[in-house]
Amino acid sequence: MTSQINPYNINGQYPVAGQDNNSQGFRTNFTNTSTNLEYAAQEITALQTNAVLKAALAGVTLDNNMNGQLLYNALTQQITQAIFPYGVLVGSSQVISYTAGYLSTLTTDVTQPTTTISFSNLNVIPSGVLATWALAITVIAGQSVTFTGTYTNAQGIQGWATGNTITFAVAGTYTFEFSTINSGSSITINEINKPLQPLNNSSEDLAASAAANLALTTSYFSTAAAETATLAAGVAGQIKTFAMFADSGDMVITVTNAGWKTSGTGTITFDTIGDACTLQYINAKWFCIGNNGCAFA
């Protein structure tokens, strides 16, 4: 803004020394000085109230709330974002505040099979602007997290099912970013820390009596004698492949939620080099979608 202070309406040459001066000149200078001080007070108060500051002024609490005002054509460097740690949850639900910071962190209660997450204060987001926030959530294998609200772009997230529920096959910390352009009426969700693992490296040498790693696509094995292994429940759409690499005894894998059984577990027996099969987890069961020589029971 243009300052209203006028330094030129005060006569610096008045009064004149050594002569009788008209009192009107004094009154004019006093009036103009008083007016300029009023302008100065108003403008300084406006700056204290509205300016963005790098430190608090004396006697004033720093508040750099931009109140939704547009900041544009700016060059930025070393910009950080706030993290709010919710800690370890006790119970089965948590409300995450949008205003707490860009990233919230939370560890689920290991005694709860399902945790419900909801977001608050989305109403402060003006409709028609993009707002983003993130959640890093630490879970154990088999836990589920349900997000309240209406979500889009979720189909590519492993374990996502109808009802906005993600079931995590593997323990770990998973980070999701959320965004909205309509004050939270609908929310886009993306997983932003998914490991990018090439297919030719996503395998394991399955040991005797071990549980097949659900985080890897393929498990192969070379038996030294008759051996067993297990496959736990997966998540919707998950694919798992088994292959016998060398045979010095049968391998029998016990499968939770076997699709070839009415209910419960089933077994897959490998008795020859080259025996292999591919399973997919469909509607809460493992179904065989490809088989070379394996026996199912």
Break the fold down into its secondary structure elements and pairings.
Blueprint: H1 23-50, E1 83-88, E2 93-97, E3 103-107, E4 114-120, E5 131-139, E6 144-147, E7 151-152, E8 160-161, E9 165-167, E10 172-180, E11 187-191, E12 203-205, E13 218-222, E14 227-231, E15 239-246, E16 251-255, E17 266-270, E18 276-282, E19 285-292, E20 295-296
Parallel strand pairs: 1-3, 2-4, 3-5, 4-6, 7-11, 12-13, 13-15, 14-16
Antiparallel strand pairs: 5-10, 6-9, 8-9, 10-11, 15-18, 16-17, 17-20, 18-19
Explain the overall architecture.
This protein folds into 3 domains: 1-78, no CATH class; 83-191; 199-296, Jelly Rolls, CATH 2.60.120. The chain is 9% helix and 35% strand. It has 1 helix and 20 strands. It has one helix at residues 23-50; strands spanning 83-88, 93-97, 103-107, 114-120, 131-139, 144-147, 151-152, 160-161, 165-167, 172-180, 187-191, 203-205, 218-222, 227-231, 239-246, 251-255, 266-270, 276-282, 285-292, 295-296. The strands form 4 sheets. Strands 1-3-5-10-11-7 form a 6-stranded mixed sheet, with no helix packed on it. Strands 2-4-6-9-8 form a 5-stranded mixed sheet, with no helix packed on it. It has a 5-stranded mixed sheet with strand order 12-13-15-18-19, with no helix packed on it. A hairpin with a 3-residue loop joins β8 (160-161) and β9. The termini are far apart. The mean pLDDT is 91.
Oligomer: single chain
Distance N to C terminus: 82 Å
Shape: rod-shaped
Provide the β-strand percentage band.
Answer: 35-45%
Low-confidence stretches: none
Give a summary of the structure in a few sentences.
With 297 residues, the chain is mainly beta. Helix content is 9%, strand content 35%.
